[in-house]
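Researcher: Structure prediction, please.
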Amino acid sequence: MGQPDFRVGGRVFATLASEKQGYGNLMLTLEQQQAFVEELPEMFLPIAGGWGRMGMTHIRLAAANEDVLTGALHTAWKLRVEKNAKTGKKNPAATKQGNAAKQKRKKSR
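Model: Predicted structure follows.
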């Protein structure tokens, strides 16, 4: 891991994990992915394999202008906000920290 990512409520909606290959990665629905790929196939493509079949989408960073990149990031961000609201999870990172503290206490006993 160790690659930059973009989060809301502790959950990822975009990453730069493929930056060395010239891509940013967006977490979209299949419908959103299809719309982006159909409208701008020179900029967007599904990530290969199972990730792409779940809506994960590459954006060609060199081809994207600021407006397109901003719009794509906003779409992914909004989807993540909506998913967070449905699950009621506000900050899963806080839960992870709490679990780590519990395990540390168990080890010290």
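Model: The beta strands are 5-8, 11-15, 23-27, 44-46, 56-60.
Researcher: Thanks, that helps.
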